[in-house]
Amino acid sequence: SYDGYMQLVPAEAADSGRWRDRSAARIALSIGLYSPRRAARNVQAPLLVIAAAGDTIAPAKGAVAAARSAPRGQLSEYDGGHFDYYKGRGFDRIVADEIAFLDRVLKPAA
C-alpha cells in the first residue's frame, strides 16, 4: 500500500525533503466510528460505490455493504488494491464506468 500511495506524491515533493507523511491526530477519534454502510442508507441520490477486492486500507466488505444499503446504490467491484487505480492499470476502465453511471443517472427523463 505504501508504494501505491507514494506514486501519488509528486517526485519533486518527495525528493525535496519537504514532503511530510502525516495527518492530524484528531482523525483517530473518528475513523473507528465511521461506517460507510450506515452513512449510505441515508443517501437518496444515485450512489456509485467502487470497491477494490484486494483493498487492505478500505476493505471491499464495507463498500459492498454500503452499496447494498443505499436505496439507489450501485456497486462496481474491481480486482486490485486501494491505490492500484489512481494511476496505472485499470484507471481508464474505472473512469469509463463512472462516466457511464453519470450518463445514466443524469439523463433527463423523456
Question: Can you walk through the features of this model?
Answer:
This protein has 110 residues and is of the alpha+beta class. The chain is built from 6 helices and 2 strands; from the N terminus they run ααααβαβα. The chain has helices spanning 2-6, 11-16, 27-31, 36-40, 60-69, 91-106, and strands spanning 47-52, 73-78. α5 (60-69) links the parallel β1 and β2. The chain starts with a helix and ends with a helix. The relative contact order is 0.16.
What's the shape? globular
**Strand tally:** 2
Uncertain ranges: none
What sequence of helices (H) and strands (E) makes up the elements?
HHHHEHEH
Please bin the fraction of helical residues.
Answer: 40-55%
- Termini, distance in Å? 45 Å
Main sheet: strand order: 1-2
Radius of gyration: 17 Å
Number of helices: 6
SS strand fraction:
5-15%
Structural class of the helix and strand makeup?
alpha+beta
Q: Give the oligomer, counting copies of the same chain as homo and different chains as hetero.
A: single chain
Q: Summarize the biggest pleated sheet.
A: 2 strands, parallel
Question: Overall mean pLDDT score?
Answer: 88
